[in-house]
Amino acid sequence: MIFGLIASGFDLIIVLPQLRKTYQTKDVSGLSICSFIIQLFSAFFWGIHGVLYLDIPIMISSFLYGFSVLSMIAMYVRFRTNPTKSEKQNINIELEKV
After folding, report:
1. pTM for the predicted model, two decimal places
2. Stretch 24-32: mean pLDDT, rounded?
3. How far apart are CA 68 and CA 18, in angstroms?
4. With 94 labelled, which of 6, 14, 25, 85 sits at a CA distance of 20 to 30 A?
């Protein structure tokens, strides 16, 4: 059980540097939302496995990892730069002036 708890801690630590950097820079251009969605499904199914087999370290790990991945997805949605149609037109007008 002790090794499972240690592994749970490392699952959380894996995502922390990316969470920190993304929060500080607000730059999500290099992130893959598809990758994070797959990781979220993985955490969800590991959580189900942990509940079915009453495996506390797996439950803790999947919850913490899932929460971290959800945080990354939330930051991706919040910080992505998707200019609206009018913003694109303004950019084109500014470029034409140059």
Report:
1. 0.74
2. 88
3. 10
4. 25
